[in-house]
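Section 4.2 – Deliverable D4.2 (structural model, holo form)

The reporting period included a commitment to supply a predicted holo structure for the target in complex with shikimate-3-phosphate. Inputs used:
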Amino acid sequence: MTDHFIARPAAVLRGSIRVPGDKSISHRSIMLGAIADGTTQIEGFLEGADAISTMNVFRALGVAIDGPFDGRVSVTGVGLNGLKQAASDLDCGNSGTSMRLLSGLLAGQAFDSCLVGDESLSRRPMKRVTDPLAAMGASIASQDGRPPLRISAPGKPLKAIDYVMPIASAQVKSSLMLAGLYAEGTTRVTEPAPTRDHTERMLTAFGVTVEVNGPVISLQGGQRLTATQIDVPADISSAAFFLVAGAIARDADLLIRHVGINPTRTGVIDILRLMGADLTLENSRIVGGEPVADLRIRSSELRGIDVPPELVPLAIDEFPVLFVAAACARGRTVVTGAEELRVKESDRIAVMTEGLARLGIGVTPTPDGIIIEGRGEQQAVFSGGEVDSHGDHRPAMAFAVASLRAAGPITIRDTVNVGTSFPNFVELATTVGIGLEKHA
Ligand code: S3P
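Output (structure tokens):
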């Protein structure tokens, strides 16, 4: 068997940990630092494969980047129009954020580029960005809406559009804002529901005027960025694995430090609290324009809920592990309005349904969500056994967390991509008491 985890049942979790830097903020810090005037210093950068893909793309576009050294990165900005044509294809690896944001950033350049990705990324939908970018005058060829994306220099400058997004996607919003920097006029994007606003916040930190009026985000083209310092908080999406671990383990008390609690990301906190989790925020503060807190989680008696649909975009990456929490709750949990889960690094509804069913959980997939019959009254909620992550980092880590309430060891196949977002997951999990082994 290639890369896999073996996770053995454990009951006691203790510790105070800091999980790696926020993936969304890490990507954006490189992108904006690269096109700024001056040198941007970044701390707390996520040294995971996805953010490194973004870093390598900008190196190929002629940007000098030092690091990462223990989370520190220095980006020598080339200015708004200083990027250079790359000598070869730009490899986004497993990272949808890299490809979608870069497609917007590169659409307005005076040179051609080709964005490619791994097998999973090559299956993911790109029309959501290429259609509105084409309306701005970009020239992007795809494989029937999927990567690779061949971007040709537009004959004339992009023009701003007023775009009402059909889906709630921060990647689409950000892609259009980045293209909007290179467009004539004011680009306006309207969101159907709030999504993560790191691009808006970070552009502002770089001195760009971004107007936010309820669901409408506007930005005038041609604005220059001024280098700044960025302190990347710990990723709430990575913290989520430990929040659920602490809630479901029989004897747990964990502190997760310096976690980003931007309100567009805290759906996981709200959902776990609705389920009855003993979760508290300590030491709340603002760091570099982003709210941060230490999160304390203790063993909890969870109950099944109907997840409020408005929380779905605010917790979109946390559902694999929230499904594990739901299995450990008393009663049924119903998730609706989450069809986007089907087009993540894997079809997360299908992958989690398959794995949870193998571990003995009553689970019904629906087109836009899932129904999970909680077994919270049992000590051992899951049987042991073997599950397949289908190469998706978040299901892999979610199944590792499930071991805390399993009757026997769980073997999780195809775990190499855990390194895309959480390179030291096994080490940190082991530190707090999860019985996890990594096998190559
Ligand atoms: C991200 C936005 C979300 C999220 C992804 C990161 C971002 O994707 O799932 O992991 O950094 O903008 P969508 O925009 O597709 O919802």
